Amino acid sequence: MVNSHSILTSAKVALDELSVADLQVDAVYVGTRTDGAPADPLNALLKVANQGGFRYRGEARKKLELLVLKTSMDDSDWPDELDPETGIFTYYGDNKDPGVDLHDTKKFGNLILRTIFEDSRAGEGGRQLVPPIFLFARAGTSRALRFLGLAVPGASDLDASEELVAIWRSTKGQRFQNYRARFTVLDAARMSRAWIDSIIAGKPDHSLAPEAWQLWRKTGKRKALVAPRTLEYRSPAEQLPADSPSSAIVEAIRHHFIGREHAFERCAAALAQMMIPQIAALDLTRPTRDGGRDGIGQLRVGSGPSGILVDFALEAKCYSITTGVGAKDMSRLISRLRHRQFGVIVTTSYVTPQIYEEIKEDQHPIVVIAARDIVELLRRNGRGSMEAVRTWLNEEFPADEEAQA
After folding, report:
1. The CATH number, out of the four listed (2.30.280.20, 1.25.60.10, 3.40.50.1100, 1.10.8.60), of the domain defined by the range 4-219
2. Prediction pTM value
3. Scanning 87, 136, 268, 335, which has its CA 20 to 30 A from the CA of 13?
């Protein structure tokens, strides 16, 4: 068996070690052969297929023994995502083409999703039918994969109706449905090779499984692997787009509002509501002499007669990515906050490091939606392509609307 210390220090497991390796969270499993050619590591590691996002042992239409969900994390139309601060993993199904029924895909991925979520809600007996779910993401440009963790369907802070949702998308004018699934990554750092081998052999010994997984199977309680940020504020690089297509999207937004930057306020309000769906109301004030516009809104906490409304202020800055939000802009927002209010700043650029650090150290309750966040929000809402973004801008914030106002 691979020495555990070597995994922790090198964070990589080579091809000839895969068949005897444990699974360690955030370890990288390398599939390079001795001749230097890249190879997929999952077959050697878990005895599953060599291709696809859904890989499994057993029969998709009957009973699964083990399920692997693999993601590249770079599909702009289907943005799979792991939130390390909450342990929630978002994964999209495998129906990505018009003319195909939601559950009739080649790998039966969406059928698998429907089945495991139904079983997870069917009490202890149903949870016993849910296979171990291992998450992997591409690590770098080769076929190496990073192990993200052991997951179970759903999340403790979500309604059942939010855990698995069939969403509509369109391509070239044709509509189709795909699943968006939410999983909880369990607080389990290592999966032993003994447990994995027992599953592969068809005689699963789940007493060897991590305690968090056994607890969920018995009680339904999800103990998430959460990793709070050690760095409280983000650098400009962490706030700006990570690649050229993302930069192009941000630039398209900025260009759409050139010469009428105050109109960006409505766009900023829409983006804030994408990030914070609990916003109950958001009103924009008239332009001021300096061309800025403020937004005043209310966030609903709770529901029904027990719910309360919390006031907040919104500030929008349609800047180029070379111009950061500085002290003057942030002071403007902070000065508008009253007791028990919070602020939201939306910018097509970034907040300068000194100001970002200051608002964190002084504990100002301000949500920062920077350029990178804008791209991620649009992608989560089905607007991952330049075409989709431009259509959204032209339909929701047309230039001629300003002329008529």
Report:
1. 2.30.280.20
2. 0.76
3. 87
